[in-house]
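Troubleshooting log. The previous structure file for this entry was overwritten by mistake, so regenerating from the original sequence record. Sequence copied from the archived sheet and checked twice against the printout by T.R.
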Amino acid sequence: MGEGEIRLEQGWREKLKPEFESAYMASLKSFLVDEKRAGQTVFPKGNEYFRALDLTPLDQVRVVILGQDPYHGPGQAHGLCFSVRPGVRTPPSLVNIYKELATDVGFQKVNHGFLEHWAKQGVLLLNSVLTVRQAAAASHRGKGWEEFTDAVIRTVNEECPHVVFILWGAYAQKKASFVDRNRHLVLKAPHPSPLSAHNGFFGSRPFSKANQFLLEQGMEPIDWQLPQDPEDS
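Regenerated output below.
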């Protein structure tokens, strides 16, 4: 993850350069190297750690959706929160997101959980922690990623004129608590997990609210409808 090794969209690279030169990032890099030397499988692949930033350049961010950790099962994580690779079963939280999309904006059900179509339109699908050890949920928390993704959120907050922050659950809401609400729209709701979705996630209508705000700012709304074939994303 050194400056010569990272694969990262240029706009983000310039703004986040101090982070890559920081002591915490050096420590994080050492931790990841040690994980792999110890024979641990780490998700997602190294060239996908920053996939969310690569697909959604800073000057194109219109919506931010915050997640927590990558999925820790084989073949799932590919660098976007809530998203899984084509051919992988749609996770329960994303199933609930699709249900809310259907009632909110008339979303037509798809048989995949691949969200790159959103990312390419300016929806930053950012996890707080960008890696995980296989079959060990939350195994890479507290190693430095949280500081890096705090810097990503600060950069969006400061550099982008009008962004919708969709914050599901207490963790995401605390992480982005400093966002300037005079410039940006902050939408809060319980997490879409089956454990909490019925406590106010369903019926929160974040997708139509986000598009209404974007239109009011003279910006293009998000096409939330995913293609039936993920290869068309």
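The mean pLDDT is 96. Archived copy saved in two places this time.
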